[in-house]
Amino acid sequence: MATVFRGGSFVAWADEPVTALVVEDGLVVSHREGPADEVVELAGRCVIPGFVDSHTHLVFAGDRSEEFEARLAGIPYEAGGIHATVAATRAAGTAQLTASAERLAAEALRSGTTTLEVKSGYGLTVDDERRLLEVAGTITPHTTFLGAHVPDGDGYVALVTGPMLDACAPLATAADAFCEAGAFDVDECREVLLAAQARGLDLHLHANQLGHGGGVQLAAELGALSADHCTHLSDADVVALRDASVTAVLVPAAEFSTFSPYAPARKLLDAGVTVALATDCNPGTSFTTSMPFVIALAVRMQQLSPVEALRAATEGGAAALGQSDVGHLRLGARADLVVIDAPSPTHLAYRPGVDLVRQVWRGGQRLR
């Protein structure tokens, strides 16, 4: 069945003018109006690609609102707060974790997210990490093993690179590690990521969030799909990301929540680095599923134009996940699209906090 969207504006990242959008068998098949079984009258609204959120931690239990209040009182964020979520998550039943993750994924969908990455990392035992990836796999095909989130006892790196990866690699498409003071150093992260790569997993890396370190250079060295956070960068780091074609995944909602400096998005884009925007949804530092909110922050705080921010939240996110069929609406793309109640995507930043999403379609099926 063919569906045609007409009577509005279109952001498709296509080379040709888009005057209408025709969807058939879940794919974009034309940018000009033609015969259709169903017509969607846009009435001047704008169609954009569905958001691709390439960095989330949706599977967890408990909250860390007390930690947030402590930051309001001036106590800085440190990586050690993750252990509080680990304890709550280990104590929770699988059904509870699944229900919570499904609720957050549904929340993300309502705000226009049609592709979602989900990490483990709040289990830190073989059984719990495997369990978190099993839950993640019920809500997305883009699952990332993050056993190297924070250390959990002596010999932990050996556990991660051996029995934990053996159990978790079949359930994941990628691996990640937290390269930071208070978490894992460069050599430890290299060991974890090389072991994951040997098991056929793509690579991501939490890099240069809390201070300048070697994480970004390691991501470039290993050919990771993405380096995430990238708050503290040298000129050499920027060049390394560009030359190795590593996507810089920026998470301004985390910086908003932790009162931290914002990553240098403008500098990265101007240097030719592919930039993605993501929510980093997690209970400690960025408890939001809203990509429109992230776009508004990137425009207001990181000097991106509304179109640049939208592209980073769609096509940039797809690049971070190694996906070519989402994040745009070119011919042959999966028909993941969002209808916003505005004439242009500028309104996503112009009207922050307002729910402008009127329709969400994934694979040619309307979900909202």
In short:
The chain has 368 residues and is of the alpha/beta class. The protein has helices at residues 65-72, 82-91, 94-110, 126-136, 156-168, 186-198, 215-222, 235-243, 252-258, 265-270, 291-301, 306-320, 347-350, and strands at residues 2-6, 9-10, 21-24, 27-30, 38-41, 46-49, 51-53, 113-119, 142-148, 174-179, 202-207, 226-229, 247-250, 275-277, 337-340, 357-362, 365-366. It folds into 2 domains: 2-50 and 328-366, Urease, subunit C, domain 1, CATH 2.30.40; 51-320, TIM Barrel (Alpha-Beta Barrel).
What secondary-structure arrangement, pairings included, does this model have?
Elements lengths: L1 E5 L2 E2 L10 E4 L2 E4 L7 E4 L4 E4 L1 E3 L11 H8 L9 H10 L2 H17 L2 E7 L6 H11 L5 E7 L7 H13 L5 E6 L6 H13 L3 E6 L7 H8 L3 E4 L5 H9 L3 E4 L1 H7 L6 H6 L4 E3 L13 H11 L4 H15 L16 E4 L6 H4 L6 E6 L2 E2 L2
Parallel strand pairs: 1-5, 2-6, 7-8, 8-9, 9-10, 10-11, 11-12, 12-13, 13-14
Antiparallel strand pairs: 1-3, 3-4, 6-15, 15-16, 16-17
Task: Describe, in plain words, how this protein is organized in 3D.
The protein has 368 residues and is an alpha/beta fold. It has two domains: 2-50 and 328-366, Urease, subunit C, domain 1 (Roll), CATH 2.30.40.10; 51-320, TIM Barrel (Alpha-Beta Barrel). It has 13 helices and 17 strands. It has an eight-stranded parallel beta sheet. A five-stranded mixed beta sheet has the order 2-6-15-16-17, with no helix packed on it. The longest helix has 17 residues, at 94-110.
